[in-house]
Specification:
One of its GO terms (cellular component) is plant-type vacuole membrane. The protein is mostly helical and 394 residues long. It is built from 15 helices and no strands.
Length: 394
């Protein structure tokens, strides 16, 4: 008994450095595997992740460029969704101001990266068409599908929504359309003998409007599921992959157009935005099925406002810094399509109620626009005519 008491009174044995090192490594590995599971398997789009290395392999082994384009487009879908998820995780720690800006940027990361790469490669036509298509896709395709499917699923339920939130986003979109119309009208009204003067004045007007258009949105924070450092590291990795695949898309878009027999305008306005908005599209439809139409409107209208009032002016400011001719003149057909899409959506939501027929109308409008750009065979330089340099000015 005395021996037992003596043994119980002994101080606990200190853990060796080797044991502590093994435990630390085990904790690190356990944390990494948990984050890996949350990031890669925490989305229903995880079956598409193998397409990412397939796209890179297709590029490295010089498969057909149309194959590279297709695989890259598909691979962007899960990466875009995870970038949005990771930006929300970081925004929780960064606060509302930085978090809101980060969410506005990463929420449309594929569109932003594709736009910047197109700007770098001097493919201004693809840039303008893709941003135009993203806005129209959110307004007509995403919202139309959500209203149609959600309306059919909730026929016997009250179908009202918060009109103030929708009006706020639609007002911002009308501001964006005003800037586009003013620049387009200015180009047609001002008829100078020297083209250089017209180009410079149009460019200055576009840059002024872009500064006025820049907006950022606040973000609603939820409880994070992974830490700040892990979120940041994963976000950097996802951004690199999105940049690689987006570069493949921009580099092979002409080859894909020739191989598929589709115009570049159709691919840029219709196909690219459908891929970029796939995650938002699915989320908006799911919330509409659950009769949470306010969230659906926030997704579709909010994303459109972000593109029109953040991505478009941001690309113009970046082009300004890099001394590249990029303005708000999207030409008559493109600008008219954008303005009509905004007006149709505004009139559809003006009474504060939603119905499946309203969604059907928006979808039919999108089908008509898609058919228009399918037959709209136009070269890339249609929406971008490089100005002639006179006395050192562009």
């Amino acid at each position: 008994m005395a021996g037992a008491r003596n043994m119980s009174s002994l101080p606990p044995r200190k853990r060796s450095d080797l044991e502590m090192l093994v435990d630390a490594r085990s904790d690190t590995l356990r944390s990494f595997l948990a984050n890996l599971h949350e990031v890669l398997l925490g989305t229903k789009l995880f079956p598409l992740f193998p397409v990412v290395p397939l796209a890179i392999a297709a590029r490295c082994f010089r498969f057909g460029q149309a194959w590279v384009f297709s695989l890259s487009l598909i691979g962007l879908v899960p990466l875009a969704e995870r970038m949005s998820f990771l930006s929300e995780q970081i925004a929780y720690y960064a606060g509302p101001t930085v978090g809101g800006l980060l969410n506005a940027t990463c929420g449309n990361a594929p569109e932003l990266i594709i736009a910047l790469l197109a700007l770098h490669k001097d493919k201004i036509g693809v840039l303008k068409w893709s941003l135009l298509g993203s806005t129209i896709s959110n307004l007509l395709l995403v919202l139309g599908t959500s209203l149609f499917c959600g309306g059919l699923a909730n026929l016997n339920k009250e179908r009202q929504f918060d009109k103030r939130q929708a009006d706020a986003n639609l007002t911002l979109l009308l501001l964006a359309s005003l800037c586009h119309i003013l620049v387009l009208t200015y180009c047609y009204v001002v008829k100078n003998d020297i083209y250089m003067v017209d180009a410079i004045s149009t460019l200055e007007l576009s840059r002024t409007c872009s500064i006025a258009m820049l907006e950022d949105d606040d973000i609603v924070s939820d409880t994070p599921v992974i830490g700040f450092a892990s979120s940041f590291a994963w976000l950097v990795g996802m951004t690199m992959l999105v940049t690689i695949l987006s570069n493949y898309v921009i580099s092979t878009i002409e080859a894909a157009s020739e191989s598929w027999g589709m115009s570049i305008s159709f691919i840029s306005v219709i196909l690219l935005p459908i891929v970029g908005n796939a995650t938002e599209h699915a989320g908006a439809v799911i919330f509409a099925f659950k009769n949470k139409i306010d969230i659906t409107l926030g997704i579709s209208l909010g994303s459109s406002a972000q593109i029109s009032l953040f991505l478009v002016p941001l690309t113009i400011v970046v082009a300004w810094i890099k001394d590249i001719h990029m303005d708000l003149n999207f030409k008559l057909l493109e600008t008219g399509t954008l303005v009509l899409a905004i007006l149709i959506t505004t009139f559809t939501l003006q009474d504060g109620s939603w119905h499946y027929m309203k969604g059907l109308v928006l979808l039919l409008c999108y089908v008509v626009i898609a058919a228009l750009f399918f037959f709209y065979q136009t070269p890339l330089d249609h929406v971008y005519v490089a100005p002639v340099e006179v006395n050192g000015y562009r």
